[in-house]
Specification:
One of its GO terms (molecular function) is DNA binding. This is IclR family transcriptional regulator. It holds the Pfam family HTH_IclR. Helices cover 46% and strands 21% of the residues. The protein is of the alpha+beta class and 261 residues long. The strands form two sheets. Strands 6-5-4-9-8-7 form a six-stranded antiparallel β-sheet, with helices on both faces. Helix 1 packs across helix 3, helix 4 runs antiparallel to helix 8 and helix 5 packs across helix 7. The protein is elongated, with a radius of gyration of 24 Å.
Length: 261
């Protein structure tokens, strides 16, 4: 009888299931575990367990303490901290975002940085805001074309900013887009001096934004809070409310601003 050749999808799922079985086995021990024990607990053949563990050592999901013994790796802690940070930011921001939306009647966005883009992770909005284009949760935007993205670029050093410009080519979306490095550097200097950032129809024509940063207990910029509105409706009076709202969310996360000397 001819054996059925496994499909790539089936094989991939099987590898993931085996990897998870090994991670679950490692998680049940406080001390480093031998290959023999991990194979027994996970139900895998020792050679299979060894091969998968080697791959996870390379990606830092697992640490090899000494030949033949393993423990969970630091990469899991790093990823866990990322998830924890994003979840706590959303929880801390939700009520404040709704209050700011009620006051302005415009879309309020919560965004985080992911590589060379920002990702919208939450928003408060209503159909009456008049916005024709609203970035959905999970939507993305280039750092240099968005108000929150400029906040994140402004905390990078000169070398990192220039590397970003090289990678992305500073491509534009509208006639207002910043596509030259010198102009972007001037813009970022203003962001640092003011403590907030703007998007003047740089991502979408007809839409303007203003953003203020949210910091965690270590002082790290972890998210941006922004108001998006039709270009002719964005009011400067909202800026103070925006900055104060971002500050309150930061305080909830444990951030304490340095006193003015």
């Amino acid at each position: 009888m001819k054996m059925e050749t496994p499909t790539p999808a089936k094989t991939s799922i099987q590898v993931i299931e085996r990897m998870m079985a090994l991670l679950d086995a490692l998680a049940s021990y406080t001390d480093p575990v031998s290959l023999k024990e991990l194979a027994r607990v996970s139900g895998l053949h020792p050679s299979t367990a060894h091969r998968i563990l080697n791959d996870m050592v390379v990606t830092r999901f697992v640490d090899r303490v000494e030949p033949g013994t393993y423990r969970l790796g630091m990469r899991l802690l790093e990823l866990g901290n990322v998830v924890k940070s994003r979840l706590s930011v959303r929880e801390a921001a939700l009520d404040a975002m709704r209050a700011l939306h009620r006051k302005t009647q415009q879309t309020v966005n919560l965004s985080v940085r992911q590589g060379d883009e920002i990702v919208y992770i939450d928003r408060a909005f209503s159909e009456r805001s008049g916005m024709q284009v609203v970035r959905a949760i999970g939507g993305r935007g280039p750092l240099h074309l968005t108000s929150t993205g400029k906040l994140f670029l402004s905390v990078d050093d000169v070398k990192a900013i220039r590397a970003y410009a090289t990678r992305t080519g500073l491509s534009g979306h509208t006639r207002n887009s910043i596509t030259e490095l010198a102009r972007l550097e001037r813009e970022l200097s203003l962001v640092r001096a003011r403590g907030y950032a703007r998007d003047n129809e740089e991502l979408e024509l007809g839409v303007r934004c203003m953003a203020a940063g949210i910091h965690d207990d270590s002082g790290k910029l972890v998210a941006g809070l922004s108001i998006s509105a039709p270009a002719d409706r964005l009011q400067e009076d909202w800026l103070e409310d925006l900055v104060q709202t971002a500050s309150r969310i930061s305080s909830t996360l444990g951030y304490r601003a340095a006193p003015n000397l």
